[in-house]
Amino acid sequence: MAFLKRKKTKKEETADVRRKRRESKTVSTNTSFLDTSKTISAFIFFLIWGFIVLICFVGLSPAGPQILPDRVAKFRVVAEFPFDYESILRTKRLVEQRRQSVAPFYQIQMEPYQDFSAKIVALENLIETQLTPELDEIPEAEWPDVVDRFNRREIADIGLKVNTEDLLLIMQRTTPEQRTRLFDEASLVLRDIMREGVFDIDETPFADQSGSGYRPVQVMGLNGGRRAQSEENAVSDLRINFAGLGVDNTLARAIYSIYRNGLTANLEYDSTRTEAEKQSAGDSVQPVIVEIMEGETIIEPGAVITQDQIEAYTAYRNAVAEDEDYGWGIDSTLAERAVLSLGLLIGALIYIQVGLPSMHRSNRRLALAALVVVFNLALVRLVLQLGETRLVGAEPGIMAMIPFAVPVAVGGLIMSIMVGAPAGVLIAVIISAINGLMQANSIDVFIVSLLANLVGIYFGRDIRLRAKVVKAATMSGLSIAVAAMCAGFFTETDAITVSRQVIAAGMVGVLTGIVVIGVLPLLENLFKFTTDITLLELTDYNHPLLRKLQMDAPGTYHHSLMVANLAERAANEIGANPLLCRATCLYHDIGKMVKPEYFVENQHDGYNPHKDINPTMSALIIKNHVKEGVQMAKDAKLPTVCIDIIKQHHGTTLIKFFYHKAKEQAAQPSLPLSASGQTAGLRESSNIDESSFRYDGPRPRFKESAIIFFADAIEAASRSLKKVTPQSVNELIDSIISQRLEDGQLDEAPLTVQEIAKIRDSFAFTVTNMLHSRVEYPKMDDEKDKKAERPRGDTPTPIDVKEKKNGTNSPTKQRAV
């Protein structure tokens, strides 16, 4: 037991703290460098590329060339010498692109502004001649009714829409001179924006240009400066300019509300000028000359021949006819496939940077993806290599099974379970593309492989049982079986061969599931990942730690269950991981098993040991349950993420009860600090070190830890409610959340204000229902009669017996956490 050891001196404690802090910083720095270093990322990238080339392409036999015009190509056509030709098709497309790139021409129309400006002038005249004199004669309390009546009658007649509240605000906040200046400046702002041109993005000429990368419009008469802008941008510009009028925000919003009605699209489309410019752009296009290099692919296998391919193929045939020394090209070389695989990996890297930022920032995830890809492709090459052996290669029936017996879904399913479906899809594309390159650059193979991966990922969503891994993999195999049947139908393959292919696909699906189940634990331990499968296993109440918690600290165990219910529902509300919250909540207070009697939920006999020690020692014991819990979790080999949450579930919050108790006792040196009469450690309340009464942290750093951080405090505090009502529960939750936000406990947590609001509502619902009251059951008439006949005071209650036996009344329990 840590607290039975010799108490260290202040100097020794300080040295230990500094040493641990240095070690923690060193480990954290090294881990951060390894996980975020761009050098390591580049090394992983080139390493996986090298392994792909080595495993997949070195020594792989290529297929011979063949072409069938106007049908699906089964092999590729490669240019064996360089040539060029004029492409009519590409020239036509380029002409059309140039025409479409010409932005439409527009003329600025200022009539809408002039009409609105006239209405503003009329509004000013009505205000100064009618409204202002009337308001001067009545008390301000009657202004709203007068302004509302004036707005509905007078202002409506001039066709101007003005909000009554805005007009009332302007009348209350400004003098006549200020109103005149304000309206003049606002009109100038609107005029400047309208002079630049405002267009409606929903109109067809503008909508056609969206996303094209060209200028949206060309405005006639607009010289330099800013270009025309959409109505949405103009509205934003108007709001920003009004904010700089030198008035308060409320008044600026009122003026904006009036002038917003005058901001409309004022560009008139000039079709004649636009068409002339398009014609000129099309005429300037030069014929497109296509250059085909030696070794360049003309026809891709497995694809329906396109018009461009027919054009290139025809030009190639003409070039061959001119020089009979050239003939058919050869199939893809190792260098060609290596370059293609490099391009594929570059594309994958770009997608990771754009679509998977969490993976891009973590070398650990990149290394996992690299290892999974290499492992899966090694299995693919192993199966394909069997087709080149004498035993298999001599049997056409077995050879026909090989393409459908490739375990292509291993990598996608593993990544989907460990990292997420988007990462799984990316790995599926990489593996499927490489598999297609390995099998004669077949697009059919690529599509079937990708389909199998996607089916496995789809059925592998939210997997929490290992049996479902086999189910997902089996469904993946069945999709390959369906593809085999379809291919057999269209190619008129015999039924026996198709049956073999279907059986092979189904068996590979089952074997894929078995392989994934076997590999997952190894990858979890190697890369420190935690899957939902592992988390679900941790929720088993027969886990040794939970069994021990039930026996040694039953109150803490029940508290953990309640916190788990709170956190799980809140996590569902904000899209966090509810299973991670539930599993970790069950273990977050396991450190209390070291000294369970020092925590109020475990004090069943009315005795509170904190009465016999000073507040500083009490706070130290309370704080220590976090450290003890972390150590116990490490000894039990709990996942790293669970250990992190145990560290963070109190953040650096203040143990207020003992902190205030220490201050009160320190302010009264004549009184003992404890029930045993201790007086050591007396000091002025101003000298109490607050850091000694704060948890060591760290603060919550991700959503799940922040949810548990709040759930733990709210569940504990809810037990102190004297009367449970929705109002009292809401007030309690709001108080705890606001205090901890003000204390900066969520400064490192990625929670938005909206998510905190959802968490708060979820807690309120759960706590209110968790602490519900029961309807009192009516008693039987005979029991009432017996009770009436029994003399009062003859039978003591169990509490009276206990108090008489102890000789004292039950002391009031104090909550220590």
TrEMBL record:
<keyword id="KW-1133">Transmembrane helix</keyword>
<dbReference type="InterPro" id="IPR003607">
    <property type="entry name" value="HD/PDEase_dom"/>
</dbReference>
<feature type="transmembrane region" description="Helical">
    <location>
        <begin position="472"/>
        <end position="490"/>
    </location>
</feature>
<feature type="region of interest" description="Disordered">
    <location>
        <begin position="1"/>
        <end position="23"/>
    </location>
</feature>
<feature type="transmembrane region" description="Helical">
    <location>
        <begin position="366"/>
        <end position="384"/>
    </location>
</feature>
<feature type="transmembrane region" description="Helical">
    <location>
        <begin position="40"/>
        <end position="60"/>
    </location>
</feature>
<feature type="domain" description="HD">
    <location>
        <begin position="556"/>
        <end position="717"/>
    </location>
</feature>
<dbReference type="Pfam" id="PF07697">
    <property type="entry name" value="7TMR-HDED"/>
</dbReference>
<keyword id="KW-0812">Transmembrane</keyword>
<dbReference type="InterPro" id="IPR011624">
    <property type="entry name" value="Metal-dep_PHydrolase_7TM_extra"/>
</dbReference>
<feature type="transmembrane region" description="Helical">
    <location>
        <begin position="443"/>
        <end position="460"/>
    </location>
</feature>
<dbReference type="Pfam" id="PF01966">
    <property type="entry name" value="HD"/>
</dbReference>
<feature type="compositionally biased region" description="Polar residues">
    <location>
        <begin position="669"/>
        <end position="690"/>
    </location>
</feature>
<dbReference type="InterPro" id="IPR006674">
    <property type="entry name" value="HD_domain"/>
</dbReference>
<feature type="transmembrane region" description="Helical">
    <location>
        <begin position="404"/>
        <end position="431"/>
    </location>
</feature>
<feature type="transmembrane region" description="Helical">
    <location>
        <begin position="338"/>
        <end position="354"/>
    </location>
</feature>
<protein>
    <submittedName>
        <fullName>HDIG domain-containing protein</fullName>
    </submittedName>
</protein>
<feature type="region of interest" description="Disordered">
    <location>
        <begin position="669"/>
        <end position="696"/>
    </location>
</feature>
<dbReference type="InterPro" id="IPR052722">
    <property type="entry name" value="PgpH_phosphodiesterase"/>
</dbReference>
<dbReference type="InterPro" id="IPR011621">
    <property type="entry name" value="Metal-dep_PHydrolase_7TM_intra"/>
</dbReference>
<feature type="compositionally biased region" description="Polar residues">
    <location>
        <begin position="807"/>
        <end position="817"/>
    </location>
</feature>
<feature type="compositionally biased region" description="Basic and acidic residues">
    <location>
        <begin position="778"/>
        <end position="793"/>
    </location>
</feature>
<feature type="region of interest" description="Disordered">
    <location>
        <begin position="778"/>
        <end position="817"/>
    </location>
</feature>
<feature type="transmembrane region" description="Helical">
    <location>
        <begin position="502"/>
        <end position="523"/>
    </location>
</feature>
<dbReference type="Pfam" id="PF07698">
    <property type="entry name" value="7TM-7TMR_HD"/>
</dbReference>
<keyword id="KW-0472">Membrane</keyword>
<dbReference type="InterPro" id="IPR006675">
    <property type="entry name" value="HDIG_dom"/>
</dbReference>
